[in-house]
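Hey,
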Amino acid sequence: MESKETRTGYLATVDWWSLGIVLYECLFGKRPFHGKSSDELSNSILNDELKFPTSEKISADCLDLVKQVFYHFFHFYDF
């Protein structure tokens, strides 16, 4: 087993963020962030406001769940 100092990977908050992406895609049929390159996508993730399409009839509770999953990640990393 590797020591804590040499292990690499990610924290569980990334799993929560990924869940938010999957929920958003299931509800709206598209991705919440956009970019033609990795840099553009990263910039979108870090700087663009999370927007919800108004054409879909999604309950307030469901939208709140998606928001909470995303914001848990962003508040943890203080974005």
